[in-house]
């Protein structure tokens, strides 16, 4: 993934319409699962930054705190905390998911009214009632299942 | 630093937590199933068959007309 380096060379102004050079694109992309890319974030260093890189080649105990932070910022775009910050993207995603659920529901409803053919005779209410009566007569699952929920004396479902 | 990390016993801690937990959860689930599913199920069958008269049941079914070989 290519990224423009906005803060790398602090003297470069956003160069969309000016005659100055654009900051370079790099292949720097860090993510939680790949936190240390091969290339550094800033590849075009000004004189000050180059001097700092030279100093980095010596003993690190000689670097001040600010210099260490500056070197970090040259190498990496964001800290771990910044890189791993949470976002509100999930709300957008869930919203779109539910929206499409609803849209699909409307489509299916329309299809049920205007597209589906007539129900076969075995799915009409009459036929289903006769089927249920036959199952109860046969005492299907009389111990814990369907027929156990039917009251044979009062001819109704048990409460 | 690496010597400090070595003394943390991280894997051992994690394994102990999970092994003990797995035992506890499976025993708990087994107990729950025994008392919520197996016991009532056996009782339901026992109650059903205690005073079950199969001939009377057969006559009722015959009267309802579901048999083809016994009218």
From TrEMBL, chain A:
It comes from the Eukaryota. InterPro entries: Cyt_c_oxidase_su4, Cyt_c_oxidase_su4_fam, Cyt_c_oxidase_su4_sf. It is a single-pass membrane protein. It is found in: Mitochondrion inner membrane. The chain crosses the membrane at residues 92-110. Pathway: Energy metabolism; oxidative phosphorylation. Keywords: Membrane, Mitochondrion, Mitochondrion inner membrane, Transmembrane, Transmembrane helix. PANTHER family: CYTOCHROME C OXIDASE SUBUNIT 4 ISOFORM 2, MITOCHONDRIAL, CYTOCHROME C OXIDASE SUBUNIT IV. Component of the cytochrome c oxidase (complex IV, CIV), a multisubunit enzyme composed of 14 subunits. Belongs to the cytochrome c oxidase IV family. Component of the cytochrome c oxidase, the last enzyme in the mitochondrial electron transport chain which drives oxidative phosphorylation. This is Cytochrome c oxidase subunit 4. It comes from Felis catus. The lineage of its organism: Eukaryota, Metazoa, Chordata, Craniata, Vertebrata. The gene is COX4I2.
UniProtKB/TrEMBL annotation, chain B:
Pfam families: COX6C. InterPro entries: Cytochrome_c_oxidase_VIc (IPR051389), Cytochrome_c_oxidase_VIc/VIIs (IPR034884), Cytochrome_c_oxidase_VIc_sf (IPR037169). One of its GO terms (biological process) is mitochondrial electron transport, cytochrome c to oxygen. It is found in: Mitochondrion inner membrane. GO terms for cellular component: mitochondrial inner membrane; respiratory chain complex IV. The chain crosses the membrane at residues 17-37. Belongs to the cytochrome c oxidase subunit 6c family. This is Cytochrome c oxidase subunit 6C. Component of the cytochrome c oxidase, the last enzyme in the mitochondrial electron transport chain which drives oxidative phosphorylation. The respiratory chain contains 3 multisubunit complexes succinate dehydrogenase (complex II, CII), ubiquinol-cytochrome c oxidoreductase (cytochrome b-c1 complex, complex III, CIII) and cytochrome c oxidase (complex IV, CIV), that cooperate to transfer electrons derived from NADH and succinate to molecular oxygen, creating an electrochemical gradient over the inner membrane that drives transmembrane transport and the ATP synthase. Keywords: Membrane, Mitochondrion, Mitochondrion inner membrane, Transmembrane, Transmembrane helix. Pathway: Energy metabolism; oxidative phosphorylation. It is a single-pass membrane protein. Component of the cytochrome c oxidase (complex IV, CIV), a multisubunit enzyme composed of 14 subunits. The complex is composed of a catalytic core of 3 subunits MT-CO1, MT-CO2 and MT-CO3, encoded in the mitochondrial DNA, and 11 supernumerary subunits COX4I, COX5A, COX5B, COX6A, COX6B, COX6C, COX7A, COX7B, COX7C, COX8 and NDUFA4, which are encoded in the nuclear genome.
């Amino acid at each position: 993934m290519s990224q423009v380096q906005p803060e790398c060379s602090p003297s470069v102004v956003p160069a969309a319409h000016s005659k100055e050079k654009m900051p370079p694109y790099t292949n720097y992309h860090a993510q939680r699962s790949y936190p240390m890319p091969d290339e550094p974030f800033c590849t075009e260093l000004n004189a000050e930054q180059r001097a700092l890189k030279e100093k980095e080649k010596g003993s690190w105990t000689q670097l001040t705190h600010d210099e260490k932070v500056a070197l970090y910022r040259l190498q990496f775009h964001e800290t771990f905390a910044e890189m791993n910050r949470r976002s509100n993207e999930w709300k957008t995603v869930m919203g779109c998911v539910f929206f499409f659920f609803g849209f699909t529901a409307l489509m299916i409803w329309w299809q049920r009214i205007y597209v589906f053919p007539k129900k076969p005779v075995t799915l009409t209410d009459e036929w289903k009632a006769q089927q249920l009566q036959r199952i109860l007569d046969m005492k299907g699952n009389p111990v814990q299942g369907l027929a156990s929920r039917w009251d044979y004396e009062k001819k109704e479902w048990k409460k | 630093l690496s010597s400090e990390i070595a003394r943390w016993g991280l894997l051992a801690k994690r394994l102990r937590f999970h092994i003990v937990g797995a035992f506890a959860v499976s025993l708990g689930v087994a107990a729950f199933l025994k008392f919520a599913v197996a016991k009532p199920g056996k009782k339901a069958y026992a109650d059903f068959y205690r005073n079950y008269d199969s001939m009377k049941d057969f006559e009722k079914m015959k009267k309802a007309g579901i048999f083809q070989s016994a009218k």
